[in-house]
């Protein structure tokens, strides 16, 4: 519903109707004849799986399906990080190895904190293990502190990164951020570059870390080999990631003079509404966090509200309402 949207179409669910999705997308490519196709989320894996079905001259600046799946797999990505010399949480191979709770239990595939749990006792952990017997899972040490995300664009000799820290997360314990602040964390940027260099990554990517200021300890969490949900923050700070990727993919030229403004803060308004409702339903919230959720001062930009394009937020609200009705979940 944004006034900047030149057109739209409805496509089949790429994850439940893969073949129909690909056919629909190919028809639209043949009709519209775009120069570049920029997937924005996990549908990128489906598209790259069928890359040969699309015109050869269509630029899709994403890695192969194999590498995308490797990086999306939390266990494999953690092993890659370890081999690259990046600190990781302690990984447990059996419940008996756990000496301290809470721990982090997660399915190796998933986004937006789906399939991520923080069991506080052995009893809780055993119950989760039994529930996810059919799933590949990862059991890790829980690290205190705050979530940090490194947004990266890497293409041949070009590599640009920025870091934001989470001020509020939509799901309790981490995951999708609703408020963020650009910070200077050169060490995390170095870690991100080390991992991407180790696989010679080309494209856009987000790497999540946990950092505890009290112990000065940082640890790798996961990779999102796509545009991240917090992309509004680096854009507001002067790092226009989609445009940088487009220029690299079409001309091979990257702008090395990008100045990222540290201290830039952004807020996802609808995300904070979802956060508030979720905390109320779970009866798990703090007044300090709620005060931050309802804060509207000190932000440089909003993810979903623009004075000159107010209808864009209405489209977003309709989308999330439809997902809530269909799936019965606040985290679709």
TrEMBL record:
The keyword Phosphoprotein does not apply. Residues 78-250 form the ATP-grasp domain. Keywords: ATP-binding, Nucleotide-binding. One of its GO terms (molecular function) is ATP binding. This is ATP-grasp domain-containing protein.
């Amino acid at each position: 519903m944004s006034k900047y949207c030149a057109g739209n179409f409805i496509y089949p669910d790429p994850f439940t109707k893969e073949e129909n999705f690909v056919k629909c997308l190919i028809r639209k490519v043949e009709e519209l004849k775009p120069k570049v196709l920029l997937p924005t989320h996990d549908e990128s894996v489906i598209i790259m799986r069928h890359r040969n079905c699309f015109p050869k001259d269509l630029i899709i600046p994403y890695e192969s399906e194999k590498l995308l799946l490797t990086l999306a797999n939390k266990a494999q990505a953690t092993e890659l990080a370890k081999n690259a010399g990046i600190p990781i949480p302690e990984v447990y191979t059996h419940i008996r190895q756990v000496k301290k709770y809470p721990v982090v239990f997660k399915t190796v595939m998933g986004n937006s904190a789906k399939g991520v749990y923080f069991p506080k006792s052995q009893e809780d952990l055993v119950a989760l293990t039994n529930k996810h017997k059919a799933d590949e899972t990862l059991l890790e040490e829980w690290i205190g502190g705050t979530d940090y995300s490194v947004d990266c664009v890497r293409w041949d000799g070009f590599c640009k990164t920025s870091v934001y820290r989470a001020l509020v997360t939509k799901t309790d314990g981490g995951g999708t951020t609703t408020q963020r602040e650009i910070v200077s964390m050169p060490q995390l940027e170095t870690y991100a570059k080390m991992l991407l260099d180790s696989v010679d990554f080309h494209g856009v990517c987000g790497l999540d870390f946990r950092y505890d200021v009290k112990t000065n300890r940082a640890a790798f969490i996961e990779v999102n080999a796509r545009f991240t949900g917090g992309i509004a923050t680096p854009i507001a700070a002067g790092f226009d990631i989609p445009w940088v990727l487009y220029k690299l993919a079409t001309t091979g030229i990257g702008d090395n003079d990008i100045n990222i403004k540290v201290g830039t803060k952004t807020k996802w308004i609808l995300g904070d509404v979802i956060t508030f409702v979720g905390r109320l339903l779970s009866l798990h919230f703090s007044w300090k966090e709620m005060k931050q959720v309802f804060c509207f001062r000190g932000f440089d930009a909003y993810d979903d509200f623009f004075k000159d394009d107010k209808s864009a937020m209405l489209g977003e609200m309709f989308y999330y309402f439809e997902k809530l009705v269909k799936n019965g979940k606040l985290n679709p």
